[in-house]
Amino acid sequence: xxxxxxxxxxxxxxxxxxxxxxxxxxxxxxxxxxxxxxxxxxxxxxxxxxxxxxxxxxxxxxxxxxxxxxxxxxxxxxxxxxxxxxxxxxxxx
Length: 93
Prior knowledge:
Largest sheet: none
Order of helices and strands: HHH
Low-confidence stretches: none
Mean pLDDT: 74
Number of strands: 0
Strand content: under 5%
Helix content: over 70%
């Protein structure tokens, strides 16, 4: 990527971006902008924490699930041996 392609954000050139920044300064003032950026940063951090919490809960719930088909067949074998029934006698679905 070149510098010129980076400066053209959605068809906005450098002069348009400068005008937008001037309007933002006039609307909010120099003291309010850092507060707005801090609040936006806290919002982004909260969002990331929420997403990572969801990912962790998904991983934890995945740990409780059977790992493979072998685990299910082992469970059938264990149940058959507990009931003194041969695995060949167990009806497979």
